Amino acid sequence: MGIEVAVRGLTKSYGTRNIWQDITLTLPAGEVSVMLGPSGTGKTVFLKSLIGLVEPEQGSVLVDGVDMVRSRERDVYEARKTFGLMFQDGALFGSMNLFDNIAFPLREHTRKKESEIRRVVMERLEMVGLIGDEGKLPGEISGGMRKRAGLARALVLDPQIILCDEPDSGLDPVRTAFTSQLLIDLNAQIDATMLIVTHNLDIAATVPDNMGMLFRRRLVTFGPREVLLTSEEPVVAQFLSGSRSGPIGMSEEKDAAALAREAEAPAPGPLNAVPRKLVPQLEPTPGLPERQAVRRRRERVRGLLDDLPPAARHAVEADLAQDRAPLPRRTSTARRDAADPQAPTLAAGRAHPVGAEAEPKERS
């Protein structure tokens, strides 16, 4: 199972420019989380801070007992091996074919024999649908294939935490849908903790268990997906609707004069509307095991019901009701409810690799 990542009071600046401050959140073990935000809000910097590639001025990032900000370099280096990082552009070596690109971490960080390296690389290539392309150079394949190759390379060291930096950038809507399904399928197969940084609302609506948003140097919200997708926070409503009306401007945020003009003449109708009907979350491709994160998340979120905003609570209750499970409410003096004995049993058996041609399947 994946590892929990606990971020506490994280603050980062470059010179006099504050990127974000006092970021506090927890990535639950084995669950898929998404971080949204307009361009320029420091999402990629946040991602790099988690793995220790960027050093914040304040705060901590706790990964299996190691603080990625303050611990000894040797401890951070070892903890970093639990991460797999998918860069925005794939970050492949142009002079190496795909096989050697994906094998690179194994050759650099392990003492595996070439026969074992080949087995692992071919398994990962099959996972991302690139069997048959291992001899090609990065310049000979499409951008989407390069992203999948970058993801395969991130997987070769069996990471317990996977960070994906805009896996949809440069992809058309069809390839983005395939990528969304691929991320869900990977989580079903390896049960890793995943954090995806994206601008894409289709990925945000259908993939994650949890969602957050960065804006104006702060974390607007982070929690179960239902909280953000039903939020009436102006910046969230604007981002989800794609409206020009709201606090986000061309240069990230609008000045007071622009906001005052909008308040006098608000944009009409649907531009300001936040969708109230949540799109179903994707399920693994048929033949793969159920995501273990689904049951863990259900039990965790049931314990949060009384703390959620009304719209988010109703959305969670509607989702849980589909499982025909009772919905006990937590009280201030009661312990968290015990696991539901009627919950569906997770599918047993070995995970089967899935290629990019798998059809997206949504939860009903």
Chart the SSEs and their pairings.
Blueprint: E1 5-14, E2 17-27, E3 32-36, H1 43-50, E4 58-63, E5 66-67, H2 73-80, E6 83-86, H3 98-109, H4 114-127, H5 143-155, E7 161-165, H6 173-190, E8 193-197, H7 201-206, E9 210-215, E10 218-224, H8 225-229, H9 234-241, E11 248-249, E12 252-253, H10 256-264, E13 282-283, H11 292-302, H12 310-321, E14 361-362
Parallel strand pairs: 3-8, 3-9, 6-7, 7-8
Antiparallel strand pairs: 1-2, 1-4, 4-5, 9-10, 11-12, 13-14
Helix pairs in contact: 3-4, 3-5, 4-5
Characterise the protein shown here.
With about 375 residues, this protein is an alpha/beta fold. The chain is about 35% helix and about 20% strand. α3 packs across α4, α3 runs parallel beside α5 (about 145-155) and α4 crosses α5 (about 145-155). The two termini are about 25 Å apart. The model is unreliable at about 265-275 and about 325-360 (pLDDT under 50).
Supply the key terms.
alpha/beta, Rossmann fold, 14 strands, 364 residues, six-stranded mixed sheet, 34% helix, 2 domains, globular
What profile does the largest beta sheet have? 6 strands, mixed
The top level CATH class name of the largest domain: Alpha Beta
Overall 3D shape: globular
Q: What's the CATH topology name of the largest domain? A: Rossmann fold
When the domains are counted, the total is 2
Low-confidence stretches: 267-276, 325-360
- Number of E strands: 14
Which value, in Å, is the CA radius of gyration?
21 Å
Category by helix and strand content: alpha/beta
Helix-strand topology string = EEEHEEHEHHHEHEHEEHHEEHEHHE
Question: Strands of the largest sheet, in order across it?
Answer: 6-7-8-3-9-10
Number of helices: 12
Helix content: 25-40%
Keywords: ATP-binding, Nucleotide-binding, Transport
Protein name: Phospholipid/cholesterol/gamma-HCH transport system ATP-binding protein
GO molecular function: ATP binding; ATP hydrolysis activity
Pfam family, one: ABC_tran
